[in-house]
Amino acid sequence: MGVSHISNRSQQSQKWSRRGLLGVLGAVPAAVALTGCSSSAGASEGTAKSDTSAKATATKKPTVSVTPADGTKKADFTSPVEITVTDGTLASVKVTGNDGSTLDGSLNAAKTKWTSARNPYSGTKYTVTATPEGAAAQTATFTTKSPGETFVGYFTPEADSTSGVGMPVSINFTHAVKDRAAVQKAITVTAEPAVEVVGHWFSDTRLDFRPETYWAAGTKITLSLRLKDVEGQDGVYGVQQKDVTFHIGREQISTVDLSTKQMVVKRDGATYATYPVSGGDSDHTTWSGIMVISERFKQTRMESSTVGLGDEYDISDVPHAQRLTTSGTFVHGNYWASTSVFGHENTSHGCVGLHDAKGANDSSVAGYKFYESSMLGDVVIVKNSGEKTVEASNGLNGWNLSWADWKAGSAV
After folding, report:
1. What is the pLDDT of residues 128-183, one digit of tens each?
2. CATH number of the domain that 90 lies in?
3. First-to-last CA distance in the chain?
4. Domain containing 76: what range?
5. Domain final residue, candidates 233, 249, 265
6. Considering 320, 332, 349, 355, which one is annotated as catalytic?
7. Which helix or strand (DSSP H or E) is residue 216 part of?
């Protein structure tokens, strides 16, 4: 019985021991689970903090800045426009002037900076529209200041005109040009059919363009002026921004031989007419060389005092006068000399004269016929005059320079 009692107590003790063991064993998973929960909660908190920081970074809005700054009223126009973005990249940029012009430009490799390909124009209000990637467009405006002093170039021939094959493109500037290279680079002359055209500076105010030989008949010439805001000299800027076209008509080249006192007119290579003429006498010899008709008058006044010859003559109605030099050489009609002079004597004060009639309306005389067959830009060549070759700058007469000498006068 005692043994049996002990045995029962022993069994009970064993049962409690198992329960206690089970209880302890049951507590272990619970502790592990808490420990696990504790670790998991700490990780989530760290992740949450990281996510919050990332979201804060991700939600930071891109900021666009413009140079010149937004709202500038007298911005410089001698530097490119720059647009930068922080906390993002640029998807597109548009810069538009109130004159309808636009500024093209390019982004850097990182797409954080846009730079205009050229400078903005002076005296222009610009609107900038910059769109960052994934964000709304941002706008800014600025206005460039006006230049203090300006210059323009007056060009020959006139826009849309038709001229002879000897007509150069001649530009006279209203201010002396100091930076010839900058100005010449802003002017281009192109031809169809294509031919090399080169500029030559005769002075600080005159720039002419021509090909190596006369233009081909039928050529279309385009003069492109990109002078706006080009600094010709300190503080003096160009204003022209335009394209103009001219056309070359038929080829007419007239050769005056003052030893024979004859002028042979050739049209497109074939003899068109021959006229007896009278050139300058031994005291007033006619310039020799290649000359181009630069002005035409059905009638005009000619006064000797304007060419340094005192009061030797003053004729109010010289018929059919066509200018060959700035200094006063013309080929013109002459009604006051005997018809026997033409083709036999050189009696003029330096001009080339053809028999004509007072009033300039007699279509049967040489002066009338030659005038009617001519146009601005036609070539007149004088030889055997007893005088030296005319200066290339005296009129539109650059053809008297060799091609090498002509190119040497270019600034580019």
Report:
1. 999 999 999 999 999 999 998 999 999 999 999 999 999 999 999 999 999 999 99
2. 2.60.40.3780
3. 132
4. 63-143
5. 249
6. 332
7. none
Query: pLDDT digits over 89-113, tens only?
Result: 999 999 999 999 999 999 999 999 9
Q: Indicate the Cα dihedral angle 335, 340, 342, 343, nearest 10°.
A: 170
Count: domains in the chain: 3
* Residue 332 known to be catalytic: yes
Tokens 């610009």: give the residue. Answer: 126
pTM beyond 0.85: the answer is: no
Provide φ and ψ at 177, rounded to 5°: -100, 120
Phi-psi group of 273: left, alpha or beta (phi > 0 → left; psi -120 to 50 → alpha; rest → beta) = beta
Using CA atoms, how far apart are residues 145 and 151, in angstroms rounded to an integer?
17
User: Hey, what are 194's tokens?
Assistant: 């294509």
What single-letter amino acid sits at 178? K
What CA–CA distance (Å, rounded) separates 229 from 236?
A: 9
Same domain for 70 and 154? no
* Annotated catalytic residue, options 200, 320, 349, 351: 351
Which segments of 269-346 are extended strands (E)? 270-276, 289-292, 295-303, 314-323, 330-334
